[in-house]
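Researcher: Please translate sequence to structure tokens.
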Amino acid sequence: GCGEVLQIGTLNEHLQNCTVQSEVPARPPRRLDQSTPSTSTAQEPEEEVSCCRAMQPTTACWMSSLGCSFQGHRAELENHESDWESHRQLIVTRMSEYRRNMEDILAERDLLRNQLNEAHGTVKELKTNFERHLQECSARDDMLLLQLRDMSVRVTNVEQDNSSRRPFLDLRGGPDGDMSANFNAAANLPTAPLESQFGSMLSGFTMSNSSVVVTGHADDVVCPDGVFHWRLSEYNRAKRRERHAPKKYTSSPSFYTGTPGYHLKLRLFLNGIGQSRRGRFMAVNLVLMQGRHDAEVPWPFRQKVTVMLLDQSPGGQHVSYTINDPGFPRPQTDYTIPYVWQEFIAIDELERNGKYLCSDSICFKVIIEPVGGVYPSLLG
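Model: Translation complete:
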């Protein structure tokens, strides 16, 4: 139906004007000869009103969300919703359910809070134990460091005692006045302390057939033609020292490539660097240092560099690496490490067959080739 609320006596006019008139079931036609009681005319509007009302849509009660299942027309719905007594029990029942649900939620919240407090206490206890363990480890490290320093001092004292008992080397030359032979003998002594001692004593002496000139300090070597030779004696002792000392490397004397020249040195990691290479490969670092000629030489450093581990057996093959065009910038601090060979040579290959490790010594050769072909110190 159209849902229109009509007054009694206006149904005929409404049915003529209403657009949903066709939906109203038609009454059977009345025969002219049929006699009808006088009351039919008065009952006709009531029948039409009830028919139109039956076609109106029904609506649910506004408390259907609380459990009320009533549905009816507008007038019936108004009468139903005005009856609060029928809805009071629904409200009480629903409120009781809400209260029970709230109690369950509060109980679960308290349980979670207790679990969180227990977890917080456990984490706090773990943190306290970790800090105590860290302090114990730090104290243990300090004690071990003191022991290592004490052992290092003892080793140094023993080395000094041993070197003081060695016979003095005569540097005055032989019958023919050849001082270079005695110099070579001093340079090839097996112990590093003795080499350092005689290096300071041989200030101003030159090897006749070598490119290395000692100018007064073991770490102040000048190589006029850019070729530097270095023998590391007592290899196994140096390797053990690296394993237990704070510094895990062994450095060569520093040298200049000429006058003026660049200031360089080698740094060896005899036990290797990195977890994957430690104990498997010897590493070599090229160290570029600040020098007294830095303002006179061109930067960046572009001279070809070759680092060689010499094979000491007859007709052997050296291990050699070359940097053709380095482009190293000028050091802004005491030194920089512009190049690293992490796998210079396998330690097993180095230590077997007596090729590279001979008489507990290894030999290196560094060649610095000038860009122009001639060093300034060799001109004139």
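Researcher: Any highlights?
Model: The CA atoms of residues 126 and 154 lie 42 Å apart.
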